[in-house]
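lol ok so funny story. i was supposed to be doing the assay writeup but got distracted and ended up predicting the structure for this chain instead. priorities right. anyway since i did it might as well share w the group, maybe its usefull for someone
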Amino acid sequence: MSYKVSAESGYAIVHLTGDIDLSCSPDARKVILDRLGAGQHTLVDLSGVTYIDSSGIASLVEGYQTARKKNLQFGLLAVSEAAMSVLELARLDKVFPIHASVADRIK
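and the output, tada:
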């Protein structure tokens, strides 16, 4: 997994790419929680994710819960087919705000 963080329209955008599994999900968790800890509305771009396991999903869930506690906005962007299939299996596609793009989110 690799990641980068950018900013757009008042959101921190966390771009995750590659496989998000037990070996790297702590890194994903840290970067997401760091943005939220800094008080930033956060969107996680999953367009480049080729695989995600339960530990990666847990990192997203923790980010979502942290954002709610801090009254910050949190959502997922451009979810890849691989990631969406796992979200649908866990029925989390009904929980997370999912947007095609940042522009779609701020409409």
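The mean pLDDT is 95. The longest strand covers residues 41-52.
back to the writeup now i swear
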